[in-house]
Every structure is written in C-alpha cells, then in structure tokens.
C-alpha cells in the first residue's frame, strides 16, 4: 500500500512539473534566479500510520539554497520534529524524528515576486523511540534511515525578506515498514 501511494504521488509530481515547465519562449527568469535563499520555519508532520503515535508532529527547521540562472534550485534542509507520546497498558511510548536532506527543484516565476518550486529531497532521517513501563526502566532505540521528500513550495519574495509555504510527502525507509507522512512548512527567509 505504501509503495502504491509513493509511486502515485511521484507520478502526480512529475506530471505537474511537466505541465508547469517552461516552453521554448520564456519571457524572463524567476526573481530567485542567481540568488541565495536562507530561511527558518515552523513545521508540522501528519503521520499516515495506524495508531496515535506520530513521530513528526510539531517541528522546526532551517534551510538554505541557491537558484542557478537557469532557474534550477539546489538546497539543503535540516529539521527537528518533537514527535509525540502515548500511554497504553501502563506503558508510555514516545517517538520523534530529525531529518537532513539535499533538495533539487525548479523555480517557476509568477507575477513579479511569486515563485512556485516543485522539488524533491533525499537524505537521512534519525528516528528515536522510547518505551517506558510504569515500573521504570525505559528502553530507547535510535536508527538512521534513508529519507525521500517530494513536494512543492510557494514563495513570496519581498525587498528584505521572504515568506514560504510548502507541502511534502515524506517516506522514511525504515525496517520492517516505511514511515509515511505529509509535512507542512511555514517559513520566513532572508
């Protein structure tokens, strides 16, 4: 099931990128072309797995990148998610995630200061979980897993700042089952 949703979303993203890709007669490059972007932001991740334990939930991040004169975007993203804690049968279980990824995309300029950026990120996710029985003696486990995050960002670039919002589909290729979720980001940049 997770593989079908992943490949379906990837197909939709590729179709959207092809639909919005510039033709041979492009008037001018987006406002981001030839520029560096740095930003801080609030994140929230929705988990697709069964149960109440969400390893993403509220998070924070920092990102940076450069848009080439050809409108190709290259960047990096560092995020930390606080995760969640649930109680079940006299046991407390908690989990959270941090993610480090490289991103590539293509900037499409709309109006004078608006940019739409289809993108995909790949990197590593650190997944931490802890099980604490009521009697005490917590047991924790951490692992580093491959991460993929296709998505799309919308940017407004002002004179001295920028605002961004993006949505990404996240897949952490953990064993035995991958973790799947949707990540929402609101950010301010310089």
General description of the model:
The protein has 190 residues and is mainly beta. Helix content is 10%, strand content 64%. A hairpin with a 6-residue loop joins strand 8 and strand 9. The longest helix is centred in the N-terminal third of the chain and has 19 residues.
Brief synopsis:
By secondary structure, the chain is mostly beta strands. Helices cover 10% and strands 64% of the residues.
Shape: elongated
The residue ranges in which pLDDT falls below 50 over 5 or more consecutive positions are: none
Number of strands: 9
Distance between the termini: 40 Å
Rg over CA atoms, rounded to whole Å, is 19 Å
Helix content: 10-25%
Mean pLDDT, as a whole number?
Answer: 87
The helix/strand class is mainly beta
Strand order of the largest sheet: 1-2-3-4-6-7-8-9
Total DSSP helices: 1
Oligomer: single chain
Q: Strand portion, in percent?
A: over 45%
Along the chain, the helix and strand elements come as HEEEEEEEEE
Helix and strand topology:
Elements lengths: L1 H19 L14 E13 L9 E11 L4 E17 L2 E16 L1 E3 L3 E20 L5 E19 L4 E11 L6 E11 L1
Antiparallel strand pairs: 1-2, 1-9, 2-3, 3-4, 4-6, 5-6, 6-7, 7-8, 8-9
């Amino acid at each position: 099931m997770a593989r079908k949703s992943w490949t379906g979303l990837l197909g939709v993203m590729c179709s959207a990128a092809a639909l919005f890709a510039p033709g041979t007669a492009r008037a001018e490059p987006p406002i981001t072309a030839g520029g560096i972007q740095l930003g801080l932001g609030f994140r929230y991740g929705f988990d697709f797995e069964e149960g109440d334990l969400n390893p993403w939930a509220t998070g924070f991040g920092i990102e940076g990148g450069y848009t080439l004169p050809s409108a190709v975007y290259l960047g990096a993203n560092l995020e930390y998610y606080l995760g969640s804690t649930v109680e079940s049968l006299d046991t407390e279980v908690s989990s959270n995630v941090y993610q480090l990824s490289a991103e590539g995309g293509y900037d499409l300029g709309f109006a004078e200061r608006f940019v739409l950026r289809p993108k995909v990120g790949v990197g590593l996710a650190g997944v931490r979980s802890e099980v604490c029985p009521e009697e005490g003696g917590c047991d924790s486990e951490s692992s580093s897993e491959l991460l993929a995050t296709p998505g799309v960002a919308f940017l407004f670039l002002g004179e001295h700042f920028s605002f961004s919002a993006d949505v990404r589909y996240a897949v952490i290729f953990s064993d035995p089952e991958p973790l799947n979720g949707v990540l929402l980001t609101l950010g301010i940049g310089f």
